[in-house]
Amino acid sequence: MPPQPPAPTSADRDALLSTLTRIADALERIAPRAATAPDLNAADAFVWHPSPARLDPVPKVNRVDLVLLRGIDRMRDVLAENTERFARGLPANNALLWGARGMGKSSLVKAIHAETNERLARREGERSLKLVEIHREDIESLPALMSLLKADPHRFIVFCDDLSFDSDDTSYKSLKAVLEGGIEGRPQNVIFYATSNRRHLLPRDMMENERSTAINPGEAVEEKVSLSDRFGLWLGFHKCSQDEYLDMINGYAAHFGLAYDRERLRAEALEWATTRGARSGRTAWQFVQDLAGRLGIRLEA
């Protein structure tokens, strides 16, 4: 018979136990943390982070008042009505706000969320509409976010700012499935709003290349173009006229009490836009910030 190994001593058992304990501790440290249920009463707005999965509350949202958004009256009214219906539990559409840069697309979403919540508070005594921002690079985690929100009694606007996809990007398929095409579909208490500079969310040169190299050009791009069809509401934002730009300037100046000669205000505002090569809500706001700084006035809401 082969010789039997010596029985482990107490010191051997202690060393083994210590080693196993260190291994268990290391595995626990590298294991993903379990998602904790978010406190959705902590704020009106949240930012979604997929790893680890969590919703971080935003105590103070960076937004402007709805009355300050000029030159986009039709888009304002349509989106406000859609949001109000959704907040009341009625059918409403996902919305794509697309078009010119700096014309207030993301500002409009945040302002209408706040305005709708104020009406809910006056009517029902609670602010039950939540705004959840998801970053463009986290779109693939959208199904996980929807799963987290669907069992909650609140209603949610999931918002993605500056949404677009590159030619080799396949994460748009996650968005398509969530908006309409998945087996579960979009939860009844969630609506999706997105802003983009592109109407179809995809670069034009990629779509043209697909058409030129395909046997059936129409079918080649159908899957990618159909992404924007998932948005029942398309709102186009176009470059503003000079009168609309000056109306924005005058609105800001009146709202914040900037006492300034009207003709001088007009001349400096036009010069500001000319040096930047654009007239937009963003350009108007930047000019007003510069003017208020020169006047030594704080811009308080």
Could you please describe the fold and organization of this structure?
- With 301 residues, the chain is of the alpha/beta class.
- The chain has helices spanning 10-30, 73-87, 105-124, 142-149, 172-181, 204-213, 217-229, 242-255, 262-276, 281-295; strands at residues 45-50, 53-57, 95-99, 129-133, 155-160, 190-196, 233-237.
- It folds into two domains: 45-237, P-loop containing nucleotide triphosphate hydrolases (Rossmann fold, 3-Layer(aba) Sandwich), CATH 3.40.50; 242-295.
- The protein is built from ten helices and seven strands.
- The chain has a seven-stranded mixed β-sheet, sandwiched between helices.
Compact summary:
The protein is α/β, with parallel strands linked by helices. The chain has helices spanning 10-30, 73-87, 105-124, 142-149, 172-181, 204-213, 217-229, 242-255, 262-276, 281-295, and strands at residues 45-50, 53-57, 95-99, 129-133, 155-160, 190-196, 233-237.
- What does the overall shape look like? elongated
Provide the CATH topology of the largest domain: Rossmann fold
Total beta-strand segments:
7
The separation of the N and C termini measures: 91 Å
Please report the number of helical segments.
10
Helix content: 40-55%
Features:
301 residues; alpha/beta; 10 helices; elongated
List the helices and strands and how they pair.
Elements: H1 10-30, E1 45-50, E2 53-57, H2 73-87, E3 95-99, H3 105-124, E4 129-133, H4 142-149, E5 155-160, H5 172-181, E6 190-196, H6 204-213, H7 217-229, E7 233-237, H8 242-255, H9 262-276, H10 281-295
Parallel strand pairs: 1-4, 3-6, 3-7, 4-5, 5-6
Antiparallel strand pairs: 1-2
Helix pairs in contact: 2-3, 6-7, 8-9, 8-10
